[in-house]
Amino acid sequence: MSGEPLSSALSDPQGHAAGLKPGLRGTARLRVQEEHTAPHLRSGGVPVLATPALIALMEWASRDATDHLLPSGTASVGMEIQVKHLAATPVGMEVTAHAELIAVEGRALTFKVEAYDAVERVGQGIHQRFIVDVERFQKRVDQKKC
After folding, report:
1. Residue 17 reports pLDDT greater than 70
2. Taking 80 as the threshold, does the pLDDT of residue 5 lie above it?
């Protein structure tokens, strides 16, 4: 990124990262398979959509809303999620997650997330992502390796 600080490269005159503004929306879909179930992911004993799989779907929807707008050499990483898993979804049913960007604070992006199956809302919450310089981030991760 041409040596300029990441915060400068990401901000527009209003201070929004990479031109990201509240109101952007993303979607992700998943047809529940055995590998998405609670027993498979060891998060429960009933063969329905596992909470970890629901959370991943909500993260995918959040990324769908914004990641295509990020400058080259950057990415968003999940840093916080608060989710209520409201209803069970059986194997074979499709689940759709929706994310709406509701706040941009420097490199922090906050999303309202919801998920629905064919019958009802199955999840809702708030998800926060952070924009990172991929090369610097990877260097820090590599330093943890023995």
Report:
1. no
2. no
Give me the architecture of the 16-142 domain, per CATH. Roll (3.10)
| Lookup: tokens for 55 | 């959370």
Instruction: Tell me what the mean pLDDT of segment 105-132 comes to.
Output: 97
C-alpha 108/C-alpha 91 separation (Å) is: 35
pLDDT at 75: 96
In Å, how far are 40, 51, 97, 117, 138 from 113, measured between CA atoms?
24, 14, 7, 14, 28
The catalytic site residues sit at 51, 59, 85
Query: Taking the domains of the chain in order of start, what are their residue ranges?
Result: 16-142
